Protein backbone atom coordinates (compact mmCIF):
# COMPACT_ATOMS: atom_id res chain seq x y z
CA UNK A 1 0.00 0.00 0.00
CA UNK A 2 2.84 2.35 0.84
CA UNK A 3 4.43 1.65 -2.51
CA UNK A 4 1.22 2.70 -4.26
CA UNK A 5 0.93 5.90 -2.29
CA UNK A 6 4.58 6.69 -2.94
CA UNK A 7 4.09 7.01 -6.69
CA UNK A 8 0.99 9.20 -6.48
CA UNK A 9 1.33 12.94 -7.06
CA UNK A 10 0.26 15.27 -4.24
CA UNK A 11 -2.80 16.44 -6.18
CA UNK A 12 -3.83 12.82 -6.71
CA UNK A 13 -3.70 11.80 -3.06
CA UNK A 14 -7.15 13.10 -2.10
CA UNK A 15 -9.12 11.39 -4.89
CA UNK A 16 -7.33 8.12 -4.20
CA UNK A 17 -7.97 8.31 -0.46
CA UNK A 18 -11.55 9.24 -1.17
CA UNK A 19 -11.94 6.24 -3.46
CA UNK A 20 -10.27 3.91 -0.93
CA UNK A 21 -12.44 5.23 1.90
CA UNK A 22 -15.56 4.80 -0.22
CA UNK A 23 -14.69 1.16 -0.99
CA UNK A 24 -13.84 0.51 2.66
CA UNK A 25 -17.22 1.96 3.68
CA UNK A 26 -19.03 -0.22 1.13
CA UNK A 27 -17.12 -3.26 2.38
CA UNK A 28 -18.07 -2.44 5.96
CA UNK A 29 -21.72 -2.09 4.91
CA UNK A 30 -21.52 -5.48 3.17
CA UNK A 31 -20.07 -7.11 6.28
CA UNK A 32 -22.78 -5.55 8.45
CA UNK A 33 -25.53 -6.53 6.02
CA UNK A 34 -24.39 -10.13 5.90
CA UNK A 35 -24.11 -10.21 9.68
CA UNK A 36 -27.70 -9.00 9.98
CA UNK A 37 -28.68 -11.51 7.31
CA UNK A 38 -27.07 -14.31 9.33
CA UNK A 39 -28.95 -13.25 12.45
CA UNK A 40 -32.19 -13.12 10.50
CA UNK A 41 -31.51 -16.55 9.02
CA UNK A 42 -30.80 -17.87 12.51
CA UNK A 43 -34.13 -16.56 13.75
CA UNK A 44 -35.94 -18.07 10.78
CA UNK A 45 -34.27 -21.44 11.31
CA UNK A 46 -34.98 -21.36 15.02
CA UNK A 47 -38.64 -20.42 14.79
CA UNK A 48 -39.96 -21.25 11.33
CA UNK A 49 -37.66 -24.22 10.69
CA UNK A 50 -38.40 -25.79 14.08
CA UNK A 51 -42.12 -25.29 13.57
CA UNK A 52 -42.00 -26.91 10.14
CA UNK A 53 -40.01 -29.83 11.49
CA UNK A 54 -42.63 -30.42 14.19
CA UNK A 55 -45.16 -31.41 11.50
CA UNK A 56 -43.11 -34.44 10.47
CA UNK A 57 -43.24 -37.77 12.29
CA UNK A 58 -39.48 -38.31 12.22
CA UNK A 59 -36.84 -36.34 14.13
CA UNK A 60 -34.36 -36.59 11.26
CA UNK A 61 -35.05 -33.04 10.02
CA UNK A 62 -34.73 -31.71 13.58
CA UNK A 63 -31.29 -33.29 13.97
CA UNK A 64 -30.12 -32.04 10.56
CA UNK A 65 -31.37 -28.53 11.34
CA UNK A 66 -29.60 -28.53 14.70
CA UNK A 67 -26.27 -29.70 13.24
CA UNK A 68 -26.16 -27.40 10.18
CA UNK A 69 -27.59 -24.19 11.65
CA UNK A 70 -24.31 -23.14 13.30
CA UNK A 71 -22.06 -23.66 10.24
CA UNK A 72 -24.73 -22.05 8.03
CA UNK A 73 -24.58 -18.83 10.09
CA UNK A 74 -20.79 -18.86 9.89
CA UNK A 75 -20.98 -19.42 6.13
CA UNK A 76 -23.15 -16.33 5.64
CA UNK A 77 -20.72 -14.17 7.63
CA UNK A 78 -17.68 -15.53 5.78
CA UNK A 79 -19.41 -15.00 2.44
CA UNK A 80 -19.99 -11.33 3.33
CA UNK A 81 -16.37 -10.99 4.44
CA UNK A 82 -15.21 -12.57 1.18
CA UNK A 83 -17.23 -10.10 -0.92
CA UNK A 84 -16.03 -7.20 1.20
CA UNK A 85 -12.35 -8.13 0.82
CA UNK A 86 -12.70 -8.41 -2.95
CA UNK A 87 -14.01 -4.85 -3.17
CA UNK A 88 -11.09 -3.29 -1.31
CA UNK A 89 -8.34 -1.78 -3.53
CA UNK A 90 -5.58 -3.85 -1.92
CA UNK A 91 -2.27 -4.78 -3.41
CA UNK A 92 -2.71 -7.59 -5.95
CA UNK A 93 -0.83 -10.16 -3.91
CA UNK A 94 -2.50 -9.22 -0.63
CA UNK A 95 -5.95 -9.24 -2.21
CA UNK A 96 -5.42 -12.61 -3.86
CA UNK A 97 -4.13 -14.18 -0.65
CA UNK A 98 -6.95 -12.75 1.50
CA UNK A 99 -9.76 -13.64 -0.90
CA UNK A 100 -8.21 -17.05 -1.53
CA UNK A 101 -8.09 -17.86 2.17
CA UNK A 102 -11.70 -16.80 2.62
CA UNK A 103 -12.74 -18.88 -0.39
CA UNK A 104 -11.05 -21.93 1.13
CA UNK A 105 -12.82 -21.25 4.45
CA UNK A 106 -16.20 -21.00 2.70
CA UNK A 107 -15.64 -24.25 0.81
CA UNK A 108 -14.59 -25.94 4.06
CA UNK A 109 -17.75 -24.77 5.80
CA UNK A 110 -19.90 -25.99 2.89
CA UNK A 111 -18.16 -29.38 3.10
CA UNK A 112 -18.85 -29.56 6.84
CA UNK A 113 -22.52 -28.75 6.29
CA UNK A 114 -22.83 -31.42 3.59
CA UNK A 115 -21.01 -33.96 5.77
CA UNK A 116 -23.23 -33.34 8.80
CA UNK A 117 -26.43 -33.63 6.77
CA UNK A 118 -25.18 -36.78 5.04
CA UNK A 119 -24.09 -38.27 8.36
CA UNK A 120 -27.58 -37.88 9.81
CA UNK A 121 -29.14 -39.37 6.67
CA UNK A 122 -26.85 -42.40 6.82
CA UNK A 123 -27.57 -42.92 10.52
CA UNK A 124 -31.31 -42.77 9.88
CA UNK A 125 -31.05 -45.21 6.97
CA UNK A 126 -28.90 -47.60 8.94
CA UNK A 127 -31.17 -47.58 11.99
CA UNK A 128 -34.56 -47.75 10.29
CA UNK A 129 -34.00 -49.55 7.00
CA UNK A 130 -30.74 -51.44 7.08
CA UNK A 131 -30.90 -52.80 10.65
CA UNK A 132 -28.46 -52.86 13.54
CA UNK A 133 -26.02 -55.35 12.02
CA UNK A 134 -25.84 -53.56 8.70
CA UNK A 135 -25.32 -50.25 10.50
CA UNK A 136 -22.43 -51.77 12.44
CA UNK A 137 -20.68 -53.23 9.40
CA UNK A 138 -21.66 -51.23 6.34
CA UNK A 139 -22.41 -47.70 7.51
CA UNK A 140 -18.85 -46.85 8.71
CA UNK A 141 -17.43 -47.79 5.32
CA UNK A 142 -20.13 -45.87 3.44
CA UNK A 143 -19.52 -42.87 5.65
CA UNK A 144 -15.78 -42.97 4.91
CA UNK A 145 -16.41 -43.22 1.18
CA UNK A 146 -18.81 -40.28 1.30
CA UNK A 147 -16.29 -38.27 3.30
CA UNK A 148 -13.57 -38.97 0.76
CA UNK A 149 -15.93 -37.95 -2.05
CA UNK A 150 -16.79 -34.66 -0.32
CA UNK A 151 -13.14 -33.85 0.39
CA UNK A 152 -12.06 -34.64 -3.19
CA UNK A 153 -14.93 -32.53 -4.56
CA UNK A 154 -13.96 -29.60 -2.33
CA UNK A 155 -10.33 -29.96 -3.37
CA UNK A 156 -11.22 -29.95 -7.07
CA UNK A 157 -13.41 -26.84 -6.65
CA UNK A 158 -10.62 -25.08 -4.75
CA UNK A 159 -7.99 -25.93 -7.35
CA UNK A 160 -10.32 -24.83 -10.12
CA UNK A 161 -10.83 -21.48 -8.35
CA UNK A 162 -7.07 -20.89 -8.27
CA UNK A 163 -6.80 -21.77 -12.00
CA UNK A 164 -4.91 -24.99 -11.48
CA UNK A 165 -5.18 -27.64 -14.17
CA UNK A 166 -7.38 -30.32 -12.60
CA UNK A 167 -7.52 -32.41 -15.77
CA UNK A 168 -4.16 -33.98 -15.01
CA UNK A 169 -5.28 -34.72 -11.44
CA UNK A 170 -8.49 -36.37 -12.60
CA UNK A 171 -6.56 -38.33 -15.21
CA UNK A 172 -4.05 -39.52 -12.63
CA UNK A 173 -6.85 -40.57 -10.30
CA UNK A 174 -8.55 -42.44 -13.12
CA UNK A 175 -5.39 -44.28 -14.15
CA UNK A 176 -4.59 -45.11 -10.54
CA UNK A 177 -8.10 -46.43 -9.94
CA UNK A 178 -7.87 -48.58 -13.06
CA UNK A 179 -4.55 -50.04 -11.96
CA UNK A 180 -5.86 -50.80 -8.48
CA UNK A 181 -9.01 -52.35 -9.95
CA UNK A 182 -7.03 -54.68 -12.22
CA UNK A 183 -4.64 -55.68 -9.46
CA UNK A 184 -7.33 -56.41 -6.90
CA UNK A 185 -10.26 -57.48 -9.08
CA UNK A 186 -11.04 -60.55 -6.96
CA UNK A 187 -11.00 -58.53 -3.74
CA UNK A 188 -13.15 -55.82 -5.31
CA UNK A 189 -15.57 -58.46 -6.61
CA UNK A 190 -15.94 -59.84 -3.08
CA UNK A 191 -16.38 -56.34 -1.65
CA UNK A 192 -19.05 -55.44 -4.19
CA UNK A 193 -20.75 -58.75 -3.45
CA UNK A 194 -20.53 -57.92 0.25
CA UNK A 195 -22.35 -54.64 -0.42
CA UNK A 196 -24.96 -56.59 -2.39
CA UNK A 197 -25.49 -59.07 0.45
CA UNK A 198 -25.81 -56.31 3.04
CA UNK A 199 -28.27 -54.29 0.96
CA UNK A 200 -30.29 -57.14 -0.56
CA UNK A 201 -30.14 -59.15 2.72
CA UNK A 202 -30.97 -62.68 1.51
CA UNK A 203 -29.94 -63.77 5.01
CA UNK A 204 -29.04 -62.16 8.30
CA UNK A 205 -26.64 -62.98 11.10
CA UNK A 206 -28.08 -65.88 13.05
CA UNK A 207 -30.05 -67.34 10.13
CA UNK A 208 -29.56 -70.99 9.21
CA UNK A 209 -28.86 -71.47 5.52
CA UNK A 210 -28.19 -74.43 3.27
CA UNK A 211 -25.61 -73.99 0.54
CA UNK A 212 -25.22 -77.13 -1.51
CA UNK A 213 -24.34 -79.90 0.92
CA UNK A 214 -23.38 -77.44 3.69
CA UNK A 215 -25.85 -76.29 6.36
CA UNK A 216 -25.02 -73.87 9.14
CA UNK A 217 -25.76 -70.65 10.98
CA UNK A 218 -24.49 -67.32 9.66
CA UNK A 219 -21.98 -65.92 12.16
CA UNK A 220 -20.71 -62.82 10.37
CA UNK A 221 -21.19 -61.00 7.05
CA UNK A 222 -18.00 -59.20 6.15
CA UNK A 223 -16.97 -57.18 3.12
CA UNK A 224 -14.82 -59.96 1.70
CA UNK A 225 -16.31 -63.19 3.06
CA UNK A 226 -19.15 -64.63 5.11
CA UNK A 227 -18.56 -66.95 8.07
CA UNK A 228 -20.96 -69.86 8.60
CA UNK A 229 -20.89 -72.14 11.63
CA UNK A 230 -21.75 -75.69 10.60
CA UNK A 231 -23.94 -78.08 12.55
CA UNK A 232 -20.81 -80.03 13.51
CA UNK A 233 -19.28 -76.88 15.09
CA UNK A 234 -16.96 -76.17 12.16
CA UNK A 235 -16.47 -72.71 10.70
CA UNK A 236 -17.01 -72.35 6.95
CA UNK A 237 -15.62 -69.19 5.31
CA UNK A 238 -17.16 -68.49 1.90
CA UNK A 239 -16.18 -65.58 -0.42
CA UNK A 240 -19.06 -63.19 -0.95
CA UNK A 241 -18.85 -63.43 -4.73
CA UNK A 242 -19.51 -67.16 -4.49
CA UNK A 243 -22.51 -66.60 -2.24
CA UNK A 244 -24.01 -64.05 -4.62
CA UNK A 245 -23.77 -66.49 -7.55
CA UNK A 246 -25.09 -69.57 -5.71
CA UNK A 247 -28.54 -70.89 -4.89
CA UNK A 248 -29.11 -71.14 -1.16
CA UNK A 249 -31.97 -71.92 1.21
CA UNK A 250 -32.68 -69.64 4.15
CA UNK A 251 -34.49 -71.66 6.82
CA UNK A 252 -35.16 -68.58 8.96
CA UNK A 253 -37.02 -66.65 6.27
CA UNK A 254 -39.78 -65.47 6.12
CA UNK A 255 -40.03 -66.60 9.77
CA UNK A 256 -38.22 -68.99 12.12
CA UNK A 257 -40.85 -71.73 12.08
CA UNK A 258 -39.60 -75.08 10.84
CA UNK A 259 -41.41 -77.85 8.99
CA UNK A 260 -40.60 -81.49 9.69
CA UNK A 261 -41.48 -84.70 7.91
CA UNK A 262 -41.75 -88.32 9.05
CA UNK A 263 -41.87 -91.06 6.43
CA UNK A 264 -43.14 -94.53 7.35
CA UNK A 265 -44.32 -97.61 5.51
CA UNK A 266 -47.11 -99.91 6.73
CA UNK A 267 -48.18 -103.34 5.57
CA UNK A 268 -50.63 -103.76 2.73
CA UNK A 269 -53.11 -105.45 5.09
CA UNK A 270 -53.16 -102.48 7.52
CA UNK A 271 -55.87 -99.81 7.83
CA UNK A 272 -54.48 -96.68 6.14
CA UNK A 273 -57.06 -94.29 7.64
CA UNK A 274 -56.35 -95.58 11.14
CA UNK A 275 -52.61 -95.26 10.59
CA UNK A 276 -52.98 -91.64 9.40
CA UNK A 277 -55.12 -90.83 12.44
CA UNK A 278 -52.50 -92.28 14.80
CA UNK A 279 -49.74 -90.31 13.10
CA UNK A 280 -51.57 -86.99 13.43
CA UNK A 281 -52.52 -87.63 17.06
CA UNK A 282 -48.97 -88.64 17.91
CA UNK A 283 -47.65 -85.38 16.48
CA UNK A 284 -50.22 -83.35 18.42
CA UNK A 285 -49.15 -85.00 21.66
CA UNK A 286 -45.57 -83.74 21.25
CA UNK A 287 -45.12 -80.41 23.04
CA UNK A 288 -42.88 -78.85 20.39
CA UNK A 289 -45.37 -79.39 17.54
CA UNK A 290 -47.61 -76.44 16.69
CA UNK A 291 -51.37 -76.85 16.67
CA UNK A 292 -51.70 -74.20 13.97
CA UNK A 293 -50.87 -75.12 11.30
CA UNK A 294 -51.99 -78.57 12.36
CA UNK A 295 -50.05 -81.74 11.50
CA UNK A 296 -51.16 -83.61 8.37
CA UNK A 297 -50.67 -87.21 7.23
CA UNK A 298 -50.81 -88.35 3.60
CA UNK A 299 -50.83 -91.64 1.77
CA UNK A 300 -47.94 -91.02 -0.61
CA UNK A 301 -47.54 -94.09 -2.83
CA UNK A 302 -47.48 -97.87 -3.11
CA UNK A 303 -44.08 -99.28 -2.29
CA UNK A 304 -42.58 -102.64 -3.19
CA UNK A 305 -43.41 -104.11 0.20
CA UNK A 306 -45.29 -101.32 2.05
CA UNK A 307 -47.79 -98.51 1.75
CA UNK A 308 -45.77 -95.32 2.15
CA UNK A 309 -47.22 -92.58 4.41
CA UNK A 310 -45.82 -89.14 5.27
CA UNK A 311 -46.50 -86.94 8.29
CA UNK A 312 -45.87 -83.17 8.06
CA UNK A 313 -45.70 -80.98 11.17
CA UNK A 314 -44.55 -77.49 12.20
CA UNK A 315 -42.43 -76.37 15.16
CA UNK A 316 -41.91 -72.81 16.53
CA UNK A 317 -38.21 -72.74 15.55
CA UNK A 318 -36.36 -74.66 12.87
CA UNK A 319 -33.80 -75.79 15.44
CA UNK A 320 -36.50 -77.96 17.08
CA UNK A 321 -37.28 -80.05 14.00
CA UNK A 322 -34.89 -82.92 14.76
CA UNK A 323 -35.88 -83.13 18.42
CA UNK A 324 -39.59 -83.21 17.60
CA UNK A 325 -38.98 -85.77 14.85
CA UNK A 326 -37.18 -88.05 17.32
CA UNK A 327 -40.06 -87.89 19.81
CA UNK A 328 -42.66 -88.54 17.11
CA UNK A 329 -40.77 -91.56 15.79
CA UNK A 330 -40.36 -93.05 19.27
CA UNK A 331 -44.03 -92.71 20.21
CA UNK A 332 -45.29 -93.65 16.76
CA UNK A 333 -43.47 -96.98 16.79
CA UNK A 334 -45.04 -97.88 20.12
CA UNK A 335 -48.57 -96.89 19.07
CA UNK A 336 -48.34 -98.78 15.78
CA UNK A 337 -47.44 -101.89 17.75
CA UNK A 338 -50.34 -101.33 20.17
CA UNK A 339 -52.83 -100.95 17.31
CA UNK A 340 -51.62 -103.90 15.26
CA UNK A 341 -50.10 -101.82 12.45
CA UNK A 342 -46.92 -103.44 11.33
CA UNK A 343 -44.01 -101.77 9.60
CA UNK A 344 -42.74 -104.31 7.05
CA UNK A 345 -39.21 -104.58 5.84
CA UNK A 346 -38.18 -105.46 2.30
CA UNK A 347 -38.11 -109.20 1.56
CA UNK A 348 -36.57 -111.08 -1.31
CA UNK A 349 -37.50 -114.57 -2.47
CA UNK A 350 -34.77 -116.44 -4.29
CA UNK A 351 -35.82 -119.43 -6.41
CA UNK A 352 -33.22 -121.90 -7.57
CA UNK A 353 -34.23 -123.84 -10.67
CA UNK A 354 -32.69 -127.17 -11.47
CA UNK A 355 -30.83 -127.28 -14.78
CA UNK A 356 -32.21 -130.39 -16.48
CA UNK A 357 -30.12 -130.01 -19.62
CA UNK A 358 -26.82 -130.49 -17.80
CA UNK A 359 -28.10 -133.07 -15.33
CA UNK A 360 -26.03 -136.35 -15.27
CA UNK A 361 -27.51 -139.35 -17.17
CA UNK A 362 -28.28 -142.54 -15.34
Automatic annotation (TrEMBL):
The chain crosses the membrane at residues 20-37, 94-118, 138-159, 166-184. Residues 147-185 form the Mechanosensitive ion channel transmembrane helices 2/3 domain. It is a multi-pass membrane protein. It is found in: Cell membrane. Pfam families: MS_channel_1st, MS_channel_2nd, MS_channel_3rd. Residues 262-343 form the Mechanosensitive ion channel MscS C-terminal domain. Keywords: Cell membrane, Membrane, Transmembrane, Transmembrane helix. Residues 186-251 form the Mechanosensitive ion channel MscS domain. One of its GO terms (molecular function) is mechanosensitive monoatomic ion channel activity. GO terms for cellular component: plasma membrane. It comes from the Bacteria. Belongs to the MscS (TC 1.A.23) family. PANTHER family: SMALL-CONDUCTANCE MECHANOSENSITIVE CHANNEL (PTHR30221). This is Mechanosensitive ion channel. It comes from Geomonas terrae. The lineage of its organism: Bacteria, Pseudomonadati, Thermodesulfobacteriota, Desulfuromonadia, Geobacterales.
